[in-house]
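Design request, tokens follow.
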């Protein structure tokens, strides 16, 4: 009986250890409440998809398109569902070396994210991190 219980406890501990996910993974809302992004992991990198928009349709009632994108071939794709965070690597509570795409302007910026509990500081910048802007996103349960 002791061997069975010990085996069960070891199995449970192993499953729990492997089931843990990275704390950044989940759903986040921007400060204005206009958009929500789901952050997920592909391989050893982190990505984020714009899964919800407060106003997903344009004035004609059609889904908003990525009309500001400098690549004409991408201007017909829907904004909702866009992968706007790409290729982040983890370094402690910081996720760096990634890019963030702003569909409102069609611009892509270097980006660094810092996790602080249920808050996520998103810093988009050009060149060096000092030349940028930070937004704080909140976790959505």
């Amino acid at each position: 009986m002791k061997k069975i219980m010990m085996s069960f406890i070891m199995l449970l501990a192993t499953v729990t250890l492997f089931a843990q996910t990275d704390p950044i993974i989940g759903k986040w809302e921007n400060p204005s409440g206009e958009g929500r992004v789901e952050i997920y992991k592909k391989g050893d990198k982190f990505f984020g998809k714009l899964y919800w928009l407060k106003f997903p349709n344009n004035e004609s009632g059609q889904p908003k398109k990525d009309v500001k994108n400098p690549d004409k071939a991408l201007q017909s794709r829907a904004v909702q569902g866009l992968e706007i965070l790409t290729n982040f690597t983890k370094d402690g509570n910081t996720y760096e070396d990634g890019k963030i795409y702003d569909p409102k302007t069609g611009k892509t910026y270097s980006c660094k994210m810092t996790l602080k509990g249920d808050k996520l500081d998103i810093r988009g910048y050009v060149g060096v991190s000092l030349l940028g802007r930070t937004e704080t996103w909140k976790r959505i349960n």
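Comment from the thread starter after seeing the answer: thanks! The longest strand covers residues 107-116.
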